[in-house]
Each structure stands twice: as structure tokens, then as C-alpha cells.
Design a protein that fits this description.
Structural class: alpha/beta
Distance between the termini: 14 Å
Order of helices and strands: EHEHEHEHHEHHEHHEHEH
Number of strands: 8
Helix content: 40-55%
Largest sheet: 8 strands, parallel, barrel
CATH superfamily: Aldolase class I
Shape: globular
Number of helices: 11
CATH architecture: Alpha-Beta Barrel
Bound molecules: 2-phosphoglycolic acid
């Protein structure tokens, strides 16, 4: 039984006061009976305050990236130990914005996944094709390569989440259809089955991400291989994020 996960990726949004405003409102909406696990991945500067304000709720905390080294002279970077000490249980790895703007490669994704698993952080590994790749009918090949190289030499994927995020659907308002998302996510599960065996592959949660909104979440989440979502824009408002959490019932 895979428990759905609805994760908010705040990207580079929200100051401390905006974070407090969101949290004060959002915790009041939660009843505690929601079926989905609820995760917030704020910027690093808001981790502490989200951690404080989520106490006595079921909200989980995650970060948007991590460095693979234990510690050291890496200006601007944050380690797994720092995230864990800040209350994080999850970390997003390989987001397409990291891949596009900040030189993330399958090799760095691989190092980050390895370190996170070693430390006990749950990686949410993002994969997905660009529009030209889909139009050239290369989407399966692209995603397969991202998975095979991202998980190279990783023997156990028990504590891993995968997020399928077609790049053309991120922040564009143009979501994949439920059928497109289901087709790819089923394919991802087949790749995982080839690598790790069918029963392991059945345990892994595969999220959909890309222009999720209260209006489309229920239909997308009703597909059998879609175990929740990674939500960008719509996670910035307590009401819309909560509606998406409820859609995963
Ligand atoms: P979006 O972003 O929901 O704003 O499309 C999703 C993501 O980048 O994780």
C-alpha cells in the first residue's frame, strides 16, 4: 500500500514573514484525517520557522537540494547533516530547474542520492523530458537514462521517491494529461522493476509534477501509478495547496 505524498516545492519564494503567514493559515486547514502525507520544501532560510510552526501537525519538512559532501569548503552549499538537524526528512534532487540553470547532471544527481540514502534522508528524484524531446518521441529514452544513471550503483531504493515532471508542464499552466502521466509513470515503474525487482518497484512512490492545480489534481491522482504530486506554484497559497492535498484522498 503506497501512501500518497503531496509535496510543496516553494522554489525561491517566501521571506520569513510570508512563511509564517502561510504556516499559520495552513495548519488551521489541516484536520489530521487527510489521507496523503503532506510535505513542505521551503527555501533553506525558511526551514527553521516551518519546522517550528509544524509542531503538533503531520506536516513533514524537506529541502530543495543538498550537496553530496559531508562538510567542507563549499561556499553556498548545505549538507545532509545540516538538513537533518533542521528537521528535514526529505530532499528534492535533480529538479529540472537545477538541471537547466545550475549544471545538475545525472552524475551529480547520483552522488546526491547516494549521500542522502546513506544519511537517512528520503530523496525525491526528479526526472522528465523537455518539449523538443517529447516531440521527437525521445521521452522514454530520456527518462530511462536519467533513472539508470541517477541510480547507478545504488543497491536499495526502498526509501526513495521519484517525481515525473515533464519540463514542458512546469510552471507553464499546461499539465500533462492524466493518460500521458500514467503512461510514463507506469514505464518508470517497469524500469525500476527491471533494476530492483517487481516487489520493490511496487513499493516506490512515483509523484507527478507540472502545473498541478486544485482543478486537475483529482483526475491526475486517480491514475494507478500516480502516488501524489510535487506542486510548485499552487503550493504557495494555503487554500490551493490544501485542495490538492485533499485530492489525494
Ligand atoms: P509547478 O512546478 O507546479 O509550478 O508547475 C512544479 C515543480 O517544479 O515541481
Amino acid at each position: 500500500m503506497r501512501i500518497p505524498l503531496v509535496a510543496g516545492n516553494w522554489k525561491m519564494y517566501k521571506t520569513l514573514s510570508e512563511t509564517k503567514e502561510f504556516m499559520n493559515h495552513f495548519v488551521k486547514l489541516l484536520k489530521g484525517s487527510e489521507k496523503a502525507e503532506v510535505l513542505i520544501c521551503p527555501p533553506y532560510t525558511s526551514l527553521y520557522v516551518v519546522n517550528e510552526l509544524r509542531q503538533n501537525t503531520k506536516i513533514k519538512l524537506g529541502a530543495q537540494d543538498v550537496h553530496w559532501e559531508e562538510e567542507g569548503a563549499y561556499t553556498g552549499k548545505v549538507s545532509c547533516n545540516m538538513l537533518i538537524a533542521s528537521g528535514c526528512e526529505y530532499v528534492i534532487i535533480g529538479h529540472s530547474e537545477q538541471r537547466t540553470y545550475f549544471h545538475e547532471t545525472d552524475e551529480t544527481v547520483n552522488k546526491k542520492i547516494k549521500k542522502s540514502l546513506e544519511k537517512g534522508l528520503i530523496p525525491i528524484v526528479c526526472v522528465g523530458e523537455t518539449l523538443p524531446q517529447r516531440e521527437a518521441n525521445q521521452h522514454h529514452e530520456v527518462v530511462k537514462k536519467q533513472i539508470i544513471e541517477g541510480f547507478k550503483d545504488i543497491l536499495d531504493i526502498k526509501n526513495t521517491v521519484i517525481a515525473y515532471e515533464p519540463v514542458w508542464a512546469i510552471g507553464t499552466g499546461r499539465n500533462a494529461t492524466p493518460q500521458q502521466a500514467q503512461e510514463m509513470q507506469h514505464y518508470i515503474r517497469q524500469i525500476l522493476a527491471e533494476l530492483y525487482g517487481k516487489s520493490k518497484a511496487e513499493e516506490i512512490r512515483i509523484l507527478y509534477g507540472g502545473s498541478l492545480k486544485p482543478e486537475n489534481a483529482k483526475e491526475i491522482f486517480s491514475e494507478p501509478d500516480i502516488d501524489g504530486g510535487l506542486v510548485g506554484g499552487a503550493s504557495l497559497k494555503p487554500d490551493s495547496f490544501y485542495q490538492i492535498v485533499l485530492a489525494a484522498q
